[in-house]
Amino acid sequence: MIPAAFEYVRAGSAAEAISLIGEHGEEAKFLAGGHSLLPLMKLRLASPSVLVDIGRVGDLSYIRDAGDHIAIGALTRHMDVETSALLQEHVPLLAHAAGHVGDPQVRHRGTMGGTIAHADPASDLPATTLALGATYVATGPNGSREIAAADFYQGFLESALEPDEMLTEIRVPKMNGAGWSFQKFNRRAQDWAIVGVAAWRGAAGSGVALVNMGSTPVLATSVSAALAGGASVSDAAQLAASEAEPQSDLNASTEYRTHLAKVLVRRALEQASA
Amino acid sequence: MTVTDDRPAAVLGTRMLRREDPALLTGEAKYTNDLALPGALSLALARSPYAHARILSVDLSAALAAPGVVAAYAGADLSSLWAAPMPCAWPVTADMKNPAHYPVAIGKAAYVGDAVAVVLATSESAARDAVELIDVQYEPLPAVVDLEDALSDRVVIHDELGTNKSYTWDLKIEDHEGAIDEAFASAAHVVKERYVQQRLLPMAMEPRAVAAVPQPFGGDITLYSSTQVPHILKIMSAITLGIPEHQVRVTTPAVGGGFGSKLNVYAEELLCLALARKHKVPVRWNEERTENAVATIHGRGQIQHMELAADAAGKITAVRVRILGDMGAYLQLVTPGIPLLGAFLYAGVYDIPLYDFSCTSVFTTLTPTDAYRGAGRPEATYAIERAVDTLARQMGIDPMELRKRNFIKKEQFPYTAMTGLVYDSGNHLAAAEKAAGLADYEGVRARQATQNVPGATTLLGIGQASYFEMCGLAPSRVLASLNYSAGGWEAATVRVLPTNKIQVVTGTAPHGQGHETSWSMIVADKLGVSPDDIDVLHSDTAIAPLGLDTYGSRSLPVGGVAIAMACDKVIDKAKKIAAHQLEANEDDLEFSGGTFTVKGSPGKTMPLAAIAFEAFTAHNLPDGLEPNLEAHVTYDPPNFSWPFGTHICTVEVDTETGQVTVLQYVAVDDCGNQVNPLIVEGQVHGGVIQGLAQALFEEAVYDDDGNLKNASLAEYLVPAASDVPGLTLGFTVTPSPTNQLGVKGIGEAGTIGAAPAVINAVVDALSSLGITNMPMPASPHTVWNAIQHAQNGASK
Description:
The complex is a heterodimer of chains A (about 270) and B (about 800). Chain A has about 270 residues and is of the alpha+beta class.
C-alpha cells in the first residue's frame, strides 16, 4: 500500500498543467480526485514518475447552461454533478447516475473529467455520457478540440486523448424531457456495476449505453435502431449485447453478463418509456 | 445518622454508553502502528507467489545494497533463532500429522503468501522497496486447492509426512453397535445433503501490526501486537524463541477487531521479537490490506456430508456427519480443533439419541485456516438447520412445525445430551415463537401463497435457524479431554485503593467488546460505587500477568464472573474490618449500596470508603488480617455457557437476475442476564451481518494454481451498511444457572444463526422451481445458475 517513489508538481491553471505534462513527457500523469490513480499506484500497478496535481485548478470546476447543452468543467466533483439543479432539470439521467458512483467519499473527491479520462468501462459516467451523446473537450499545447463520446473510448483504459492533452470540459446535450433510466446491478452499493445500463427515450429517439460489458463503454446501437424501426421494448432489449464483448470475472460469466444486459435494458426502457 | 444509598440505581442491565468509544470515534485511540518508536527498524517480507514451490535459491545481494537496508535474511539464515517450530496448541489426536512450520520457509513454500525472506530497513518504504529486489528462484510444484484432491494424496505437500491427511477424529454414540445403521435403514425419511463452508477472510478493520522493543540491558523485551491473546502469545513466544518467559512482556495498544484472526501466534510476531533481540533495536511490522488477505489466517473451509433419519412423524432419530476440513498449508495455533468445536452440536437444538460424527482434515497449498467468529459452531448449526428444512420439505410440512416436534423441551433442562455435555438451561420454543411473532411468520406464509405463483419473477421466501451455542470456553477438564494444551479459566483482581477508587485487573483481552464498560458495571453493582470510580486494566502481561484472553464468547461468562467473585472476596474481607471496627458480629452485618450496616442498628454503619482507608493504614485491623483491600480469583467454569435463539429471515429473489434482497431479519437471542443491552445488541448486529455476509457476499476465491483472486476489499465483498437490512432484535432471558451473574456469551451467536436462516429463506423462495440446496455465498450469479440448472432439468 506504499506507492513507488514519484515527483509531485502542482498546477495552478489548466495552461500550466498542460505545459507541465508536456515538460515531463509520457511518464507523467494528471492527478485530479485521485480515486482511480492512487489505488493503482498503491498496489504498484501504476508507477508514474511525475504526478501533475490539477486538483486545485479552480477554473475547471463549473456546470453551465450553454444553450442546447450543459457544459461541465472537468474538475467538477461527482457530488456537484449529482446535486446540480441545472443538471437535474436538463440532464436528469447524468445527475442521477453521478449519485451512484462509488460511495459518498468517492463522490466528494472524484471528478467528472477524471472518470471520463480514465476510460474505465466499469465506471458509470463514461457510459452515461456516451448514451447521452456527449462531446468532450481536450486541450493541448496547440489549443482545444472536441471529441465525440462515441469516438473517445478506444480500448481498456485507453482514450483518444493525446499524451500532452488534458480533458477540460464535458458537453452534455439537454434531454428535453425524454424519459430515462439508470440501472446499476451490483452486489454492494459502492462497487462498480457488474452490468449497468444508461438509457433515454424521447422525441429525438433513444440512447442506450452499457457499463462493464466489454473493454470500453458500449453504445447499444442495435437496440436504438430496433426501437426506431418500431420494435417492442422487450424485442429490442434482446439485442442489448449485440455490440458488447463482455468479459468473465469473479462476479459474472460472459453468458450471465449477456443475460443481465438484456434484462436490465428491458427494465431501463420500460422505465424510460413509462 | 441517615444512611443514603447513593449507588446509581441498578447499574447492571442498563444501556450505559461505552467508555471506550470517545477515543475510538474521535481517532484518538492509539494502535500498534501509532506507536512512536525512535530508531525502530521496519520489517518487510518477501512472500511466495507460488502456492507450492521448491525454493532453489534466495539472492539477497540487491536488497542488501538498497538504500536504508540494514539486513536481509532467507529462511535458513534464521534457523538458529528458533528453539521450536511455530506452535500448534491443539494436537487433537495422538497421531495427528503436524509439519514443522517456521516463520520464514526453508526449502519449500506451501502457499501464496508464505514468507521466504525478510528485510530490515530504516523505514517501511525502504523495506518494502528492497523486498522487490530479492531474487528467489523457485521450482513450481502442483498446487493442491481442492479438499477431495488433497485427500487423494495425488500431490503430497509435506514430503516428511507422506500424506496430506492430518487427522481423523470420531465421535459415535449409540446404545448398541449398529443402532445408527438400523435407524437409517428403518427410517421413514432420510435426508442426505452436502454443504460447503467456503473459506472466509476475517478482515478485521485493523490489519495486524507488531513492534518488539528490547531493553538495552538485561534481555527484557516488550512485544506490542494487535492480538486477541497477549497471554498465550507471551508463553508461546518464550517457548518458540527459547527465551525466559519472565523476560517477555506482551501488551496490546488498541486493537481494531479480530474475529478470531488475532487468536494466534504469527510469524511476524516471532520475527520482530527475534530480530529485535539480534539487532538490539526495536523492530516493527505493519500488515498491508492485501497482505492481510493471504498472511492472516482464513476462516471456515469445510465440506460437510449431513444425514438425518426421521420417523413418519418427523421425529429425528439419528444424525450422521462426515466432515472434510481444510487446514491450509500448516497448522496454526488452534487450526485442527476448529471443526471439533462444532463436533457436539450437529444435533442442534433437538432431542436426538443417536449420533455419528467423523472429521478428517487435510492440508492444502492455501493460507492456513483457524478460528473465525463462531469457529466450528456456525458450521454445525448450518448443517443441522439446513438439513431440518430439507426434511420438512420432503415431508411436506412447515419447517417451524417440524422444529417444534423435535426441540429439546423446556422441562428437559438441565439436559444431558448423548454427548455427555449438560445443557444447563434453554427454552427453544419460547425463542422460536417470539421470533415467529416478530417476523409475522404466518403473514409471510400467506403472502407467499399469493406471490409465488407460476411465472412470478419475484419470489418470497422465509427461513429459520434455531441454534444452541457451546461457548464460554471453557471448563479446563473438558478442554483436557479434547487434547487442548491449555485450560479455560480466567483471572481477575479487584483492588480497592485507599481513596475508594477501584482498579480491576482482568485477564481478558478486549478488542472491540467493551470490557472496560461492562466490567466496571459489574463491579459498580457489587461494591456500590459509581462506574466512573472504576478503572479496568487489561492486555498487558506486566499489569495483568494471568489470563487466557478473549475468544469463544468467554470473556463475560468466565472473565466477568471471575470479577464478580473477586468482588465477593473483597466484600468478605471488608466485612471483617467493619465488624472489627463496629464491634459487631460479622453475621450481623449487611452490605448494601457500598455501606455495611449492623442489622437492627441503622446508626451503626461503615462505608467501603472508610474501610478502604483503614485497610491501607492498617492501624486498626483484626488480628492476623493482611493490610489492603484486594482480592484475586482464578475461575475455572464448571460448564460451558449455552446461549440459544431463533433467527428468521425473509427474502425476495429476483429470478431474472438471481439477486437476493433481504426484506426483514429477526433475531431472537437468549444470553441469559444482560450486563449492558446496548453492547449485547451491538454484538448481535455485528454477528448477524457477518453471518449474512457468509450467506450472500463473502468467499475467498482461489484459482487452480492456488492464487487468491480477491485479495482486496474491492473484490472481497465485505458488506457495508447500505448492503444489509435493518435488524429486528428480540430477546428471551433464561439466566444461566451455572454462574452467579446468570450470563452467557453473545459474541458469536449472531454469526451462528444468520447463515442458515438466510440460505433457508433463499431455498424456500426457490423451492417451487425445484431448488433444494444453494451454495454459499448465494451471489446473484450463483442463484441464477441454480435457477437455470433447475429449469433445464425440468425441461428435460
